[in-house]
Amino acid sequence: MREYPPPEAIRTLYTPAAIAARVGELAHAIANDYAGRSPILVAILKGSFVFASDLARALPLPLRIEFLGVRSYGSGTVSTGAVQITQDLTHPIENQDILIVEDIVDTGLTLAYILGLIQARGARSVRVCALLDKPSRRRVEVPVDYVGFSVGDAFVVGYGLDCAEQYRNLPALCELLQVPDSP
Ligand code: PRP
After folding, report:
1. Does the beta carbon of 44 lie inside 6 Å of ligand 1?
2. 67 sits in which H/E element
3. Is 123 part of any domain?
4. Which residues form the catalytic set?
5. Strand pairing category for 84-87 and 156-157
6. Is residue 168 part of a domain?
7. 53: Cβ–Cβ under 8 A, 6 or more apart, which residues?
8. What's the mean pLDDT in 47-73?
9. What tens digit of pLDDT does each residue of 93-111 get?
10. Which residue's CA is the nearest one to ligand 1's atom 4?
């Protein structure tokens, strides 16, 4: 059977062990900052589903979890700037402490839209935890309170992140070496 993924297609950036260690550090910082409070983790789908599940389990806090489905790239590899809600929250968030959990902040366009939405719904506070930050690609300024890893311009897949819906199930964070052209 052919190896998946083909070793020539990807390069490992962060191993599962390195990710787990960093998630533990993030959880420690978040737990300190939210001591005595019960935040709602808003996991942004699809990309953050793996990170959010690990982060939530590492947080010794009473918390609720909500999912917000957002799509900005379609099946291509370049941001369109257009943001579409594919799945909404199931409960009101008025007067709640919201922790947005993102897999990656790239141009910042998606996060800027989400922050506007959360604020418009009357949240008491909003913070952002992103596993990956790509500051060199930013097009709008957005606050990112907790960052797992800051990365360059590599196309990152695995641990929830995709390329045309592939590779989300890789346990490591990997650079995709052969990026297909956008449609
Ligand atoms: C990715 C990622 C962020 C967004 C970041 O989502 O999960 O939500 O892009 O990019 P930006 O900062 O340039 O806006 P994507 O639209 O690819 O959907 P997915 O999470 O379902 O993979």
Report:
1. yes
2. strand 64-71
3. yes
4. 106
5. unpaired
6. yes
7. none
8. 95
9. 999 999 999 999 999 999 9
10. 110
The C-alpha atoms of residue 32 and residue 152 are separated, in whole angstroms, by 29
Point out the ligand 1 atom lying closest to the alpha carbon of residue 112: 14
Contacts made by residues 126-130, CB under 8 angstroms, sequence distance 24+: 126/98, 126/99, 126/100, 127/33, 127/98, 127/99, 127/100, 128/99, 128/100, 128/102, 129/26, 129/30, 129/55, 129/99, 129/100, 129/101, 129/102, 130/101, 130/102, 130/103, 130/104, 130/105
Q: What's the average model confidence in pLDDT over 17-28?
A: 98
Q: pLDDT band at residue 71, thresholds of 50, 70 and 90?
A: confident
- What is the CATH number for 124? 3.40.50.2020
Higher pLDDT, 15 or 3: 15
